[in-house]
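Supplementary notes for students who missed Thursday's class. We covered one full example, reproduced here. Read the sequence, then the structure, then the short commentary at the end.
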Amino acid sequence: MNILTTEVFRFMLENAESNLLNHQKEIDAKNVFPVPDGDTGTNMTMTFQNGVLESKKVTSDSIYDIAKGLSFGLLMGARGNSGVITSQIFRGFYMGLEKEEEITVKILAKAFMKGSEVSYKAVMKPVEGTILTVIRESSYYAYEFVKNNKNCSIEEYFEELVRQAQISLDNTPELMPLLKEVGVVDSGGYGLVTIFRGFLAAVKGEKIERTNTDAQVEEAQTKVESDEFGYCTEFILRLSETGKLTYEEEKLKRNLSKLGNSLVVVTDEDLVKVHVHTLTPGNALNMAQRYGEFVKLKIENMSLQHENILDMSKKEEEKKPYSLISVCAGAGLEKAFKDLRVDHIVSGGQTMNPSCEDFVEAIKKINADHIYIFPNNSNIIMAANQARDICSDKDITVFATTTIQEGLTACLSFNPEADHETNKKNMQEAIDHIVTGRITYAIKDTVVEGVSIAENDFMGIQGKHIITSDKDLLTVAKKLVDSMVFDDAELFTLIAGADAKADDVTAISEYIEDTYDLEVDVIQGDQPVFYYLFAVE
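Structure (token representation):
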């Protein structure tokens, strides 16, 4: 095949989506840190699914138009850093196809080179040994292959692209020592190779069947008609070995019922099928994901039509000087942020990174001179920045908050009476001067930066570093506290999660008060995943 057809291109996208779904768990397992988070495989799969869904809406036979639809879907659905970079790769790809009526091997090769160029530009400080390296090296060497083999076919091009991508991926541990220590390759790069392998199978006429499903299990559904609004959230969860030990259907039902209605929960051996109507789908997903991994997932906005009708009949919201947007999960944290003048909460966090579109939708509702966004997670910052760029008609500042604690202290420093520049300066200074820590559990055995970690151990993490790991939570908490407290510190904030125990909260607070001359402030955050969030100021 020397000319790429529309039929084959659509087949490529479907195959790549299927391959990502099939290897989602493997990609997740490549993550360096053994923490339960918004894993790379999950983020890339959900991002690509949104892109393919958007591409299917394109009725044109033009590959450029389809690729543009794919790019838009990826852009809006991008979750996590890996999802955002993937969206930028295919943004460059579609740009490389512009004005081309026939897609030849050479044009394909140039388009992927353009994808590499655009994705690098999207990252402020590109890091080698990541998905960026894999797209750069594979697209370059595959392009050189085309230049040196004038009569090569599209099949041969993709064979070379996959070969070079695999070589680049295998070399990522040599470029990033932490990957080498843990014994994994870069997870984002692994995801990209998975996409390319899907493409290659398609051009060879091979269909990739989806195996990451259970044919005997039907998706949880409901025929109940409702005039309510919010998000229709449906998913199938496969219980992990740890999840099987802690999962209780009635407990999950009780917790989910607090988030919404029209609730259906069905447990079939190690599979849990859920349907719920909720205003905070991220909270529902966070709550469920602690027990395992998603097999199927669908979220539909039931409010959209209702909101459009309301928008036509009501006057525009009165403009105000400032509006604040924060990401968090947990009823206590939502209340804490709202008490600090945050107008809009984007539901999500560690286990379910919000998409770019989630931020865009929040921004669209705002009528303010200045908008401040607090992502509160390093894996969410890029999606927030992408939303800012999309909504370029508004003045938006994204503060690169990597933790909930940084977001809270920034909002605490916000003064609605101060001018824009003063607020930005004061909030950034607050972020820069806080020390934060968190306690969670390990999802696998590993060694990271010399710290030996066993599955299900409690881990104390300060910044990007795992400080300690132990089977006893209080031992971990005390060591983490000791590592965080600095001279001249005055305040220690303890944020208790959904699984925190009152006795442990008391014990930790007493340890701090007895050991250090610090005021202790306890907040019930109800956040998932993290038993405790610590902050020292």
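Commentary. The chain has 21 helices and 18 strands. The longest strand covers residues 292-301. If anything here is unclear, bring it to office hours.
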